[in-house]
Amino acid sequence: MKSYSILFALSTLATLSESWILPPSTVLKQRSTTSLSMFGGAAAGGQNNDEAEAQAKAMGMSLKEYQIAMRMRENLATALNNHRSTSGTEDCKVTHDGNCNIIDVSITESGVSEGKEKLEGMLLKAWGESFEDAKAATQREFQVLQKGVAEEMKGL
Which residues form the signal peptide (predicted)? Predict the structure, then answer.
């Protein structure tokens, strides 16, 4: 089990830094999220009416229902990309977005001086707490999406 957690910590750090060596500041460079990373296809305003009608028909929806779905999808994607869940201590912090992607990992010199095993434990604890919070935020955003769709559909 210990070897898996070490591999996880190293792979996490490697993917967030440009090399296997941490920068001198020991704060890793922040990655930017991709717009609509959880979803494919065009955004709500990215299609002309003919394309939108064809897509709606292919999905068995009216054009109005399709437009509502695309708008809600865009709102959800924006909310998930903008969400940040941070956990850990001042010496070791991990931040996830609402898509459960790691956005930032920061480890201070005093965190490194704690030793390999303690730092590994702090990193895994911070990752787990941040990930669980991001998952909960994702669930909340899906509930908001479902309520929004239900409200919009009442008007049809």
Answer: 1-19
Greatest alpha-carbon pair distance for the chain in Å reads 62
Give tens-digit pLDDT for 78-127. Answer: 999 999 999 999 999 999 999 999 999 999 999 999 999 999 999 999 99
Residue by residue, DSSP assigns 52-110 as: HHHHHHHTT--HHHHHHHHHHHHHHHHHHHH-EEEEE-SSEEEEEETTS-EEEEEE-HH
Express each pLDDT in 91-105 by its tens digit: 999 999 999 999 999
User: What is the DSSP code string of 95-152?
Assistant: EEETTS-EEEEEE-HHHHHT-HHHHHHHHHHHHHHHHHHHHHHHHHHHHHHHHHHHHH
CB-based contact 17:28 (threshold 8 Å): yes
Residue 68 near residue 149, CB atoms below 8 Å = yes
Q: What is the pTM of this model?
A: 0.63
**Interatomic CA distance for residues 4 and 130, integer angstroms:** 19
129: tokens are: 């707490």
